[in-house]
Amino acid sequence: MRLFLVMLLFLLGACDQGEDEAKAPPPPAPAPAEEVVPQKIEMVLVPAAFADLPGWDEDDLRTFVTAFSRSCVRILKADPARAFGGLAEAGTYARWQGACGAFLSMDDKSPAALKGFLEAYFQPFAVQANEEPVGLFTGYYEASLRGAVQKGGVYVYPLYKRPEDLVMVNLGAFREALKGQRIAGRVEGGNLVPYASREDIVGGQWAFAKNDDQVLVWVDDPVDAFFVQIQGSGVVQMEDGQTMRIGYAGQNGHPYYAIGRELVARGEMPKEEVSMQSIRGWLEAHPAQADEIMNTNKSYVFFKETEGEGPLGGEGVALTAGRSLAVDQSLMPYGVPLWVDIEAPAGADKNIRRLMMAQDTGGAIQGPVRGDVFWGYGAMAEKFAGEMNSKGRYWVLLPKMQDVETEEMQEE
Is this model's pTM higher than 0.70 or not? Predict the structure, then answer.
């Protein structure tokens, strides 16, 4: 977020219009005020050692294997010469393919063997926003809903499929300076125009919303329908006893706005008490005002039915509870391991100190030291995710340069 300090310029007027003062030359014009330009926030990597990682010897890495393996399978399919995201220090996919190949071929994946592998192949770097190593970490989860394929009874709140006329644009594909930025809209008269807002969609003012054929599933609670938009994925317990896993299929292009901020601005709750649970409680207690508050967030997410072992993250691989982290993908590429040290959320007894994978992103996840922990599915996941608003820091693990140099020499 860019903050600008506006300086007020006061002009000196004449105090007296007497004859002598009237004949005197006018005072010199004041010098123009200089605009104070805030310092640009950049991601800085500081070399570190594994001994610098708090709790490094205490993490049982066996649950990390699944998350890392899923990213490695994707990495091995990429063009070796291609840059590994927008992080110059990450090098090319060739660097990562050597490490991933060695990892996937390991017979012994005990915690001790995994630590030995990581220390042999990777170099940790502390991540900072300029000189600040501490940032904000929140949580998200796979939402639980109740629904039906056909509208009727309590199932009257739609979750829509992605519209055919929705155009989503990755601006970084057109301008390097716009890397990580995206817009969405629809084509009208040969021009891309903004898409309908959440208010237009849920209020039925949008032509697409009047066609029930475009509904993926009907759910029984408007607040649940709103929160699954924020989480991006969920499991719907169907009326017939089956389950439907739903995942992100597109977004209307309007920026995400946290309605907790709106409730604070209106004096409905103090900032210190804002959490997913407190917001949900307020919406349920004020049904007449709930739509107005929810519609201050103009963003709307479209869904599709998904299959597999978990919800898909932005990387295109299934997320792993407690091991997948959503990051600002314009700064941190998908598929990198990250060691985190995060304050314990309410109800947890100790800091979160573990190895995670950058495998997802989100509209509110912006900045060099910013993360969103995926907690998985279920009541406890919802509790921790909803209450998490913690300070923390992380280190990124990058393949050692000397390993690459050795490989290049062998190729020569």
Answer: yes
Residue type, 91: G
Strand 233-238 and strand 215-219: the pairing is: unpaired
pLDDT along the chain (412 residues), means of 10: 31 35 43 56 94 95 95 96 90 95 94 95 96 94 92 94 91 81 90 93 75 89 93 91 92 92 94 89 94 95 88 91 94 96 82 96 87 90 87 96 44 46
Alpha carbon separation from 83 to 86, 95, 282, 330, 361 (Å, rounded): 7, 10, 46, 13, 19
Quote the number of domains for the chain.
Answer: 1
> φ, ψ for residue 229 (rounded to 5)?
-65, -40
HSE-up of residue 360 (Cα within 13 Å, Cβ side): 32
Q: Is residue 156 part of a domain?
A: yes
- CATH code, domain with 303: 2.40.240.50
Query: Which residue, among 364, 396, 338, has the nearest Cα to 88 in the 3D structure?
Result: 396
